[in-house]
Amino acid sequence: MLVTADRIHDGRQWLPAGTVIELDEQGTILALHTDHSGDGVQVYKGVICPGFVNAHCHLELSHMKGLIPEGTGLMQFLKDVIFKREGFTEEQKTAARHAAYDELYHNGVVAVGDISNAYETLDIRGRDRMHVYTFVESLGFNPAKAALFFTHAQEVHGHFAAQQQGKHRLQQSIVPHAPYSVSAELFGLIGAHQPGSLMSCHNQECPDEDQYYTDKQGGVGDLLHTIGIDDSAFQPSGKTSLQTYLDWLPHQRPMLLVHNTCSTPADVQAAQQRNRELYWCLCPNANVYIENRLPDVPMLQQEAGNDHICVGTDSLSSNHHLSVLSELQTIHKAFPAIDWEALLHWATANGAKALQLDDVIGTLEPGKTPGLVLLTADFSALQRLY
Fold it and tell me: Which domain, by its residues, includes 197?
């Protein structure tokens, strides 16, 4: 098959006008032609790019769509998730996450970084329509129970690791949920598990998180007390959460930092100086939904570099859609100086590299099967081609 479009983005940059993509019936790229002439070329109006990578999603929360009001702030949002997520039948939960998986697929996603606290998403991974990297979250703020919390995460991880793979890659690792829900001792156990495997952590999603680590004030303490967690053992470091917990983890561990709503240049510089393989994952629509604010994306682009930003959607409990394109539109509307060449780079090549899938997806290169997405010329809609 031979296809071309008004413009083609290869996952990193725009290709020369007139480039033709040659691919086989399975969608594997065979060649890119810059001087092709002749019959048999399918010409599309708009923009072709590789399939999108949703680097951060919570498919297990799909049944909570529309349940939590917007603009409550993160602390109240988390209380609502904790107290409302179980008020559904298993049939309702199953139907919702399968519908969410289909939504991802039809919105051009070829790989997803999915957060799991239990076994529920094993069924949709088995549908084998996209690559899935499952981040098995470990939570527990009581340092005396760190081993118990970690054992539970290992049990969940074992079920995902035992799942048979099809044509799409299935990967998994144990990761911390967030600095306000994981003790230093549990961070240490997680960091020592599967050395070199990919990690993910919700990072600096609201001001309360940093305030708690600085002087143990703000809303985190109230959240913990409301859900019955004793935080008396926690001693504030006097530094931001990020600058504290990164020292509890191996410095060379590849990692996604997710949200980064309140990250400062000093935070980014401190993280980068640790020589980590870091990716800063943006979920702007969820940030607006929960906190009605956005990260300083131009600062992240300047400090972290264009090759270290990727994009996620968070969950349907904090978003109206699971659309990577919608996330890019939100960024571009708020920061119009960030052009579409960079935005598509973040949503394709960077996401693939962040999820350790860049050998098979993310860019239009011979031998890869990245999927093809057709965008309208004004980036307002999309169609999945392959």
Answer: 52-361
